[in-house]
From TrEMBL, chain A:
Protein name as it appears in the record: Helix-turn-helix transcriptional regulator
InterPro entries according to UniProt: CBASS_pafABC_assoc_protein, WCX_dom, WYL_dom
Domain WYL: 145-206
Ranges for domain WCX: 241-317
Annotated PROSITE patterns: WYL
Any Pfam family matching the protein: WYL
PANTHER family linked: PROTEIN PAFB (PTHR34580:SF3), PTHR34580
TrEMBL record, chain B:
Stored InterPro entries: CBASS_pafABC_assoc_protein, PafC-like, PafC_HTH, WCX_dom, WYL_dom
Source superkingdom: Bacteria
Organism, scientific name: Nocardioides ginsengisoli
Protein name as it appears in the record: Helix-turn-helix transcriptional regulator
Pfam family, one: WCX
Phylogenetic lineage: Bacteria, Bacillati, Actinomycetota, Actinomycetes, Propionibacteriales
PROSITE patterns, per the entry: WYL
WYL domain location: 169-235
Residue intervals of the PafC HTH domain: 15-140
Domain WCX: 265-336
Length: 319, 341
């Protein structure tokens, strides 16, 4: 009876890992695939190698004898196979435990958990009880995120349909350099093959599927690429300001929910109700809109420049 | 989502992956019980026994007894063949597997981004210096050719998005078990928060927002709840009672079937500065003009909502019909303006 596949894979891995010299294919066949016909062996061996590589096992092809280059063999270099020594203090190990809870995204959470498991297997005592107190901090709702992340990790070109506002969708061809999260959005930074230049794409504007094109490792990211800086240049930060508002008692929940300070029972602009003073950190863009939507329930005191905008806009519709 | 190439490997490959983690874990510790090993690997004690039975058949090429890995199966399997959770796992002759596999590019980048996020948000009370030390050690250990370039700058929107993602997961869980959900919902048009029990139908997307489509027991009708306005949600033990149906298809307009006796069809002209509203609010029809403006039709049930919207867009939205809303807007604007004078 042939051995189960997991047994065959593990035996192949051990054999290639412990031998100092590369092992010829024929020898591998004799030892691990003794009952298979030549063509079946070829197929099975190719697939087994690919599967080990998909786990991250570095199966290398090398010359068996440096003097003769006509025969190649296979090996797994131990230094490329194994996680290097990592020494963490108990305090540092606890931080690693908490990190495995940061992602609220199934694949990324799984990848982080797998990383933490490997660190545990390297002898680091990760305190799994610490996980109970941690809360997720980061997500990626954009469907294109996962493929873009993989493409960046694998350095594999992609194509996708991209829709800019007020424009027809266009097919784009990009060599991804990095993914960046900025101001609550994910961006892809890369070399746009159609434009012949560096570009930034907002992941929420991808339409449909992202297709991986060509082979992994097909290009190099320019060595001095600073993806955060590129993204910041192309997607300028949203300026924020502390807004000071007078809010009618029982109203303005949208401001109250995120307020940094609320002073109740202050003097207000009318006596129809009580008034509270609310301080809240807000993006300056859209602040006037939000204040206006509350009508006579909210009065903006600061910033004065935006207060002036509110008054100006009210005058235009007040007739 | 389609294919997930980085999902945990299953079958034979998953078994190999687990063993490549389990063997070094045992190597670094004494007296690891079957149950502990299962917890580490995120699987069952029974699966760990099956994995170890495979390991038992592996070893150095040659097939001599000394070449094979030895596993003390008697300590972890009862005479009846069931796993003994408290049993201690002992293996020998597996020193060449004493180190775990390197982190893959995806694993390394996922954990490094997570750590940077912890550092930059000061979450979980970890000092930036402490997290930086961990980052330096892991980045050195994970040094892989062409390390991926990933950067994350935290923003206030992250927390909101995490909440929405968690809500999605909660709704999926409630749906799977046909459970009711109790939620607190913020209604901006009434500027109030209310609590209600709903029978979920599912989550639907429209424009840039996601909605929970559900039967609302308080309203006695189907309602759409914007996920980012749900401030609290919990799954109740009680089962849903409303007839099961798939969530509405919102492609034909968000509140298309709400044109009842209480609703009014309103036509607005939106100047270019107000065009963004068509992405945010349910429009029945949008007729763009060449100058960048647009005429839009929308169905309005709650008049206060429309007046709030008009104030928000002022002075870039003009009511074409019915005229009563122009008067309401003007009166409201005058009232507000007096407070500033």
């Amino acid at each position: 009876m042939p051995a189960p596949k997991s047994e065959r894979l593990l035996n192949l891995l051990i054999m290639l890992l412990v031998q100092r010299r590369p092992i010829a294919k024929e020898r591998i066949r004799e030892l691990l695939y003794p009952d298979s016909r030549p063509d079946a062996f070829e197929k099975m061996f190719e697939r087994d190698k690919d599967e080990l590589r998909s786990l991250g096992v570095p199966v290398e092809v090398a010359q068996i004898d440096p003097l003769f280059d006509d025969e190649v063999g296979y090996r797994i270099p131990p230094e490329a196979f194994a996680l290097p020594e990592v020494e963490l203090t108990p305090e540092e190990a606890q931080v690693v435990g908490i990190a495995s809870r940061v992602w609220q995204h199934a694949t990324m959470a799984q990848a982080t958990t797998d990383a933490v498991r490997k660190l545990s297997a390297a002898g680091i005592d990760v305190d799994l009880d610490a996980l109970e107190i941690a809360r997720p901090l980061l997500t990626a709702e954009e469907p294109a995120f996962e493929r873009c992340w993989i493409a960046v990790c694998e350095r594999q070109a992609i194509e996708f349909d991209y829709q800019r506002p007020e424009a027809e969708p266009m097919r784009r061809h990009v060599q991804p350099w990095g993914v960046v999260r900025y101001a609550g959005r994910w961006y892809l930074v890369g070399y746009d093959a159609d434009r012949g230049a560096e570009r930034v794409f907002r992941l929420s504007r991808f339409l449909g599927e992202v297709r991986l094109v060509g082979h992994p490792g097909a290009y190099d990211v320019p060595p001095d690429t600073d993806v955060r800086q590129i993204a910041r240049r192309m997607a300028p930060p949203t300026p924020t300001a502390t807004a000071v508002l007078l809010v009618r008692a029982g109203a303005g929940h949208g401001f109250r929910r995120t307020a940094s300070r609320i002073t109740t029972g202050v003097e207000g602009p009318d006596d129809l109700s009580g008034w509270d003073r609310v301080e809240v950190l807000r993006a300056t863009q859209g602040l006037a809109d939000e204040v206006l939507s509350h009508g006579p329930d909210v009065v903006l005191l600061e910033p004065t420049a935006i207060r002036d905008q509110v008054v100006e806009r009210l005058m235009q519709v007040a007739g | 989502m389609s294919r997930t190439p980085t999902a945990a490997p299953v079958g034979a490959l998953g078994q190999v992956a687990r063993l490549l983690t389990l063997v070094p874990f045992l190597h670094h510790r004494d007296g690891v019980r079957l149950e502990e090993a299962a917890t580490l690997l995120g699987t069952t004690p029974n699966q760990v026994v099956q994995d170890l039975r495979v390991l038992f058949m592996c070893g150095l090429p040659g097939g001599l007894p000394d070449d094979l890995i030895d596993v003390d199966l008697d300590a972890i399997v009862s005479e009846e063949g069931s796993p003994v959770s408290e049993g201690v796992i002992r293996i020998e002759n597996a020193d060449y597997l004493a180190r775990p596999l390197r982190l893959t590019a995806t694993e390394a980048s996922a954990v490094i981004v997570a750590l940077r996020m912890l550092r930059d948000t000061r979450a979980a009370g970890a000092s930036p210096e402490l997290v930086d030390r961990v980052l330096a050690k892991l980045e050195a250990a994970a040094a892989i050719g062409g390390a991926p370039h990933v950067e994350v700058a935290p923003s206030p929107r992250d927390a909101e998005q995490v909440v929405v993602a968690q809500l999605r997961a909660l709704v999926e869980e409630a749906l799977a078990g046909s459970h009711q959900i109790r939620l607190s919902y913020f209604v901006p048009s009434r500027d109030e928060e209310s609590e209600r029990v709903v029978d979920p139908h599912g989550i639907v997307n429209h424009g840039i927002f996601s909605y929970l489509d559900a039967w609302c027991h308080r309203a006695g009708a189907d309602r759409l709840f914007r996920l980012d306005r749900i401030t609290k949600a919990e799954i109740l033990p009680s089962r849903t009672t409303a007839p099961v149906r798939p969530p509405r298809d919102l492609d034909d307009g968000l509140f298309g079937d709400d044109t009842g006796p209480d609703s009014t069809l309103v036509t607005l002209r939106l100047a270019p500065q107000a065009r963004w509203a068509t992405d945010y609010y349910p429009m029945r029809d949008v007729r763009p003009a060449d100058d960048g403006s647009a005429e839009v039709d929308l169905v309005v049930v709650d008049r206060r909502w429309l007046v709030r919207l008009l104030l928000r867009l002022a002075p870039y939205a003009e009511v074409l019909q019915p005229g009563e809303f122009t008067e309401a807007l003007t009166a409201r604007a005058q009232e507000t303006l007096r407070l500033y004078q």
